[in-house]
Amino acid sequence: MADIVEGGCLCGAVRYRIDGEPLSSGTCQCRTCRKASAAAIVPWLHLDAAKFAFSAGQPVEFKSSPSVTRSFCGRCGTPLTYWTTSYGRTIDVTTCSLDDPEAFPPIGHVWTSHKLSWVKLADGLPCLEEGVPSD
Questions:
Q1: Which of 19, 82, 86, 128 lies in disulfide reach of 51, CB 3.0 to 4.6 Å?
Q2: Is-contact 54 48, C-beta < 8 A?
Q3: What is the distance between the alpha carbons of residues 76 and 13, in angstroms, rounded to a whole number?
Q4: 94 with 80: CB under 8 angstroms?
Q5: What is the pLDDT along the chain (135 residues), one digit of tens a residue?
């Protein structure tokens, strides 16, 4: 049986479960992720959506662009998920909303062309100027 990973928002009103390992883990520097989280870098887990479920509460959804829906706690504002129509049956979950955000360190960085000038990515991980290449 796969491990269950849990997480949720700051106030505890919204909780979720992930059944098993993510497909990948990385950080995003794009303008919309930065604006939506008020942070210079946003770490994400990329998952099979069938392995993700909210277990308590219901987040608020926001269409940040025509093809993108983000969710967050309507009580405390914690960003939780990102889904775009191009993802199909996958979803991104904010790594730092995990109960143990150390469990899945990033394996790379995307949208580094949008990176703030004062951010220095010196961890040696792969950096992509834009998003992950499509198949």
A1: 19
A2: no
A3: 8
A4: yes
A5: 358 999 999 999 999 999 999 999 999 999 999 999 999 999 999 999 999 999 999 999 999 999 999 999 999 999 999 999 888 899 999 999 999 999 999 999 999 999 999 999 999 999 999 987 654
Query: What are the structure tokens assigned to 33, written together?
Result: 């992720």
- Read off the tokens for 129: 């100027």
- Round to whole Å and give the CA distance between 47 and 106: 14
Give, in order, the Cα–Cα distances in Å from 106 to each of 59, 75, 89.
Answer: 25, 28, 21
Phi/psi at 49 (5° precision): -60, -25
For the entire predicted model, the pTM comes to 0.90
